[in-house]
């Protein structure tokens, strides 16, 4: 479903349900030793999607461990992103020589709970969203794009990025698809010595009851 949002060379693996016959690799078991059953199942399925994506790149199955901030730790010279929500798990991965960073998020296509929009947006975003039609849930799309932005940001900076630290604008190119632009409102210095980040360009899609936002830098 999300392949159309990504450039060539980025591998995609998706699941619209759990994979009951799949187990975590031994090294990963400790990450979910105390997890409830629901969390354990989504972890195992999403990690399996990650290994399927890596397999498309010619990489043998490896544990996908967790960093200090909860981020997935990919093999050396690989960048990737994971997402999971009710009824959907996915992973994308690519070689760092082809893509600098990846960020992806999926959410149910429904309105945000009351009061949440004010905490995940800046005033110019709320002003624009108030002028949009009600044929899709723009507030949920905004939240999804902010999450994708953070996932693309963190591997390059190793710093937190708050909802208030990015201003996102949307373009609608099809009935339920389009692009978005993230303007960063904080210093974008990276840890790899590359060009400082000024923003991200992403793409979004609404399909099968889901909102999906993807960034490939």
UniProtKB/TrEMBL annotation:
Residues 28-93 form the 4'-phosphopantetheinyl transferase N-terminal domain. It comes from the Bacteria. One of its GO terms (cellular component) is enterobactin synthetase complex. The keyword Cytoplasm does not apply. InterPro entries: 4-PPantetheinyl_Trfase_dom, 4-PPantetheinyl_Trfase_dom_sf, 4PPT_N, Enbac_synth_compD-like. Coiled coil: none annotated. CoA binds at residues 39, 47, 83-84, 105, 147, 151, 161. GO terms for molecular function: holo-[acyl-carrier-protein] synthase activity; magnesium ion binding. Its cofactor is Mg(2+). Keywords: Magnesium, Metal-binding, Transferase. One of its GO terms (biological process) is enterobactin biosynthetic process. Mg(2+) binds at residues 105-107. Residues 101-180 form the 4'-phosphopantetheinyl transferase domain. This is 4'-phosphopantetheinyl transferase EntD. It comes from Williamsia limnetica.
């Amino acid at each position: 479903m999300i392949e159309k949002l990504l450039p060539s060379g980025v591998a995609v693996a998706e699941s619209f349900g759990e994979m009951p016959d799949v187990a975590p690799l031994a090294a990963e078991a400790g990450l979910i030793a105390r997890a409830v059953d629901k969390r354990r199942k989504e972890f195992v399925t999403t990690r399996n999607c990650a290994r399927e994506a890596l397999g498309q790149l010619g990489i043998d199955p490896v544990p996908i461990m967790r960093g200090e901030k909860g981020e997935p730790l990919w093999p050396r010279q690989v960048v990737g992103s994971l997402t999971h929500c009710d009824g959907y798990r996915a992973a994308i991965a690519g070689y760092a020589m082809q893509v600098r960073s990846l960020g992806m998020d999926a959410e149910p296509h429904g309105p945000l709970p009351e009061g949440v929009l004010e905490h995940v947006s800046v005033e110019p975003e709320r002003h624009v969203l108030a002028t949009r039609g009600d044929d899709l849930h723009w507030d949920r799309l905004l939240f999804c794009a902010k999450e994708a932005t953070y996932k693309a940001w963190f591997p390059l900076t190793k710093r937190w990025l708050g909802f208030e630290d990015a201003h996102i604008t949307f373009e609608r190119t099809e009935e339920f698809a389009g692009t978005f632009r993230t303007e960063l409102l904080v210093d974008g210095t990276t840890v790899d010595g590359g060009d400082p980040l000024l923003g991200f360009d992403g793409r979004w899609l609404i399909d099968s009851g889901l909102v999906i936002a993807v960034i490939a830098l």
